[in-house]
Amino acid sequence: SRWCLITSHKLYSSVYDPNEKTFEKLLIANRGEIACRVIKTCKKMGIKTVAIHSDVDANAVHVKMADEAVCVGPAPTSKSYLNMDAIMEVIRKTRAQAVSLNVSICCSCFIYRKQKSQKGVTFIGPDTHAIQAMGDKIESKLLAKNAKVNTIPGFDGVVKDADEAVRIAREIGYPVMIKASAGGGGKGMRIAWDDEETREGFRFSSQEAASSFGDDRLLIEKFIDNPRHIEIQVCTVLADKHGNALWLNERECSIQRRNQKVVEEAPSTFLDPETRRAMGEQAVALAKAVKYSSAGTVEFLVDSSKNFYFLEMNTRLQVEHPVTECITGLDLVQEMIRVAKGYPLRHKQADIPINGWAVECRVYAEDPYKSFGLPSIGKLSQYQEPLHVPSVRVDSGIQQGSDISIYYDPMISKLITYGSNRAEALKRMEEALDNYVIRGVAHNISLLREVIVHPRFVQGDISTKFLPEVYPEGFKGHKLTDLERRQLLATAASLYVAEQLRSQRFLGTPRIPIAKSKRSSWELSVHLGDGTYPVAVSKAGSSFSVEVDGMKLNVTSEWNLASPLLSVTIDGTQRTIQRISRNASGETNIQFLGTVYKLQILTKVAAELSKYMPEKAAEDTSSILRSPMPGTVVAVSVKPGDMVSEGQEICVIEAMKMQNSMIAAKTGKV
């Protein structure tokens, strides 16, 4: 039933020819939402699928969706999803005819081993030369230069140590970007503004690169300050009998934190047709230069004058590919499978449209109030995707009851909305975020919603520095206007009264037949933020008349208190709210306009008596170093008895493949 629900909301319209033979069985050497995405297309094409999984992923969604599933090792990716010996053995045992992988190192390793042993197996993707050339940022930059592709100034060799990194950085001129040669996804990447940051960046980037990619080589290039991040999707076929190469328009990926994308859209508000064509032609030129034969993405940085520079080429299906599928109508996974089988592309460049607008938000299990998103772990105690909202697509690899662990990326899903224009797509995204139910872990819904409704984003005035520029003191959640504050107070008070009325009834009848007639008015005290507000509520049918700040508001709803979502109309304005939690002392958490607000609702008498209640003293944490996220301690820089100064590194925590330096908050003795 879940599969039917998802496919009924697909936002691409490719035709699947049952007479076009491809493969009988395909092994997917991946996990999460991308594995589920490949399985969906395979089902439509009549291809049986084999999933691999680690021991902690035994009950994962991609395992349940596949026709067969095999465990390939313990939780760490190096011992499971990147364990090529185990994967090759699964291929042999299941007799899979094709393999889909999504990690460049794993891909090239597979192709090499396939050439030695499993010669009858096809890889869904480009050949080993293209993967190795484009997977290595140093080599790819040299190839791009030779293909007449605009490149960023920098050092084209391997940086040997921290001292050489400092020397190169000085020659290029600060600021510089230190990057893992085999990297991607923001891992193994640091911006340095001086010598000290260069040394620190070299250390952390090399360690992250070794941990994530098994390759600690680094390169350094000039950091383009305040750019846009725009990429071109390419789909190519280059073989003896046919040669064809397409660019499938662009994706704007400028909203980022820690060099990782958060919000993407297609097309870009910034590009004109001439710049779009120039970027597309350079992307195709690079693909042809390496004899690329699959779907791939060429990423560019674009400055305010629309000068663009090659950043990297990703030889895999990108996380943000759905927005391209929405505006072109193509199924990129289907195209990759067809190309791997040897079929030519069915389209010419003139056939590729830009139909409408698509926006994608990456929903992460992260706390957005900590550095725009530090990982959160836990079990999804309640999970409900907003698929009832029109023109919404959700690519996910989890379900209610799934565990978000420290071993893998904290992504919950990719939420995509489509509209005939940008305003319509953004409005639907706003509605979808309000209707997304996630319980059990922290999530970044509040940040995503604030981004898409911010005036700068709505106007298209964005860059990769959008988040630190808009929130220089860090993200604090939605700031309520006076009207919104009154709406929240009125809604919370009405919800409290509705619950009080429900508790007086049992199976639709009064608990005590001889009870007095029901009350029709309540005097409450509601605490929100730094203020406490008197609120008067009176009931009229299914509506409540609420007086706040001397103003009356009419609040109407079906008051289905068992539902995680509650649609409320306040003086004609519809709002979707979620009551996250409540307790017997009147405290309740309500998600309103994306942000969760803490309120305490008491009767007038209880509020007067609460001043006699003792307050719990806050914990003194000034002498404690507490990790802001779960993870693994990979280095400890001090020992008992050491004197440390404020800002000195105490230890390094690795969480979801990212390394974070924990520093002392004050001078003291360990």
UniProtKB/TrEMBL annotation:
Pfam families registered for this protein in UniProt: Biotin_carb_C, Biotin_carb_N, Biotin_lipoyl, CPSase_L_D2, PCC_BT
Keyword Glycoprotein: no
Domain Biotin carboxylation: 22-472
EC number: 6.4.1.3
Annotated ranges, domain Lipoyl-binding: 616-670
Intracellular or extracellular location(s): Mitochondrion matrix
GO cellular component, one term: mitochondrial matrix
GO BP field: lipid catabolic process
Annotated metabolic or biological route of this protein: Metabolic intermediate metabolism; propanoyl-CoA degradation; succinyl-CoA from propanoyl-CoA: step 1/3
Record GO terms (molecular function): ATP binding; metal ion binding; propionyl-CoA carboxylase activity
InterPro entries, per the entry: ATP-grasp, ATP_grasp_subdomain_1, BC-like_N, Biotin_BS, Biotin_carboxylase_complex, Biotin_carboxylation_dom, Biotin_COase_C, Biotin_lipoyl
Cofactor: biotin
Protein name: Propionyl-CoA carboxylase alpha chain, mitochondrial
Name of encoding gene: Pcca
